[in-house]
Amino acid sequence: MLALRPNCECCDKDLPPAAADARICTFECTFCADCADSRFGGVCPNCGGGLVARPIRPAALLAKYPAQPERVLKPHAGCASAA
Q1: SS3 3
Q2: Bridge partner residues of 52 (DSSP)
Q3: Which of 25, 30, 40, 65 could bridge 49 with an S-S bond, Cβ 3.0-4.6 Å?
């Protein structure tokens, strides 16, 4: 089950469960599309894997399988000027 993290770990932009601009890697590191593309070129700075569009969990299932509430923010190269 995907954690559906609530923010970009680079710029801290909010990424609610239905965010079309959320990107994840195979380890569920989460970034907004702008950081994923412009800062990291579609490659996760943590593991080196590809960043792809995060699937959207159907709203009807969010009550049973809620998004992760904890925010993750990591100091990546290129993020110093973010947020």
Answers
A1: coil
A2: 24
A3: 25
Q: What is the DSSP string of 5-66?
A: -SB-TTT--B--TT-TTEEE-TT--EEEHHIIIIITTTB-TTT-PBPEEPPPPPHHHHTTSP
Contacts with 15 (C-beta within 8 Å, 6 or more apart), sequence order:
5, 6, 7, 8, 21, 22, 30, 32, 54
For the domain covering 1-57, report its CATH number: 3.30.40
Q: Match 């469960």 to its residue by tokens.
A: 17
What pLDDT, on a 0 to 100 scale, did the predictor assign at position 49? Answer: 96
**In this predicted model, what pLDDT tens digit does every residue of 11-59 receive, in sequence order?**
999 999 999 999 999 999 999 999 999 999 999 999 999 999 999 999 9
Bridge partners, residue 30, by sequence: 24
How far, in whole angstroms, is CA 14 from its chain's centroid? 9
